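Entry 14. Two folds queued back to back today. First construct below, sequence then structure tokens.
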Amino acid sequence: MEDKTCKTCERTMDIDNFDEGLKTCKMCLSDKRNSYHKHKHKRNEVQRKRYEEDDEYRKMKQDYNKTFQSKIVSCSVCDCSMTQAHYYKHKKTEKHQRNLNNGQ
């Protein structure tokens, strides 16, 4: 059997305790993911509470969202226009990828 050392906990374990191509063991990955989600949930709770209670903060967020959703941008590769909110989604489309490859 082959052994591998985890870069996080520095324990040497059987290679079955690792996902393919990763240097961190499954146990450490699980701990990191659980910790991240716990802190993310807490942070979201704080922001949600502030949004509900702080009128100035709520207005600022609403104005930002209106601006972001209504700003028109154009893709020079595909020669089409869309809102800024959809631009990154557009970059993943087959049409954009095909035009990008044909333009090179």
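Second construct, same run, same settings:
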Amino acid sequence: MFRKFVFPFLLLGFLSLTACTEKNLNEPFLGYWLQETDKRPISLHIKEDGPDVVVRAGQLRFGPYETYNWPGEVKQENLLNMGNGRLQLRYEDGKLVDVDDEQSTFRQIDEAQYKSEVEQKRK
């Protein structure tokens, strides 16, 4: 009788511990990012949306400051696929690097810097 109850609880405990140690692949990408360029930099706000992420991207175009919300998914460790394949970013040495253009990089900024940057571009 004792074995009937103890074994299932031990198994359940082991499975729950295994689930807790699973690595969150989204973690390095979360936060606020700013493209490292002087010409109309893109700003990104990446936050979790269930198992995936949602990316709010903004850029000063020829006129108004435009923002887009793109779905994002971390398919492999250190690789973020955004906008249904529109853009892929790799996390490398604390920066995000555009897979298609190695010269296009993003540095992480804090929320206050992000809000200041966005507000400045809207004027």
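Quick look at the second one. The helical segments are 2-20, 111-122. The mean pLDDT is 82.
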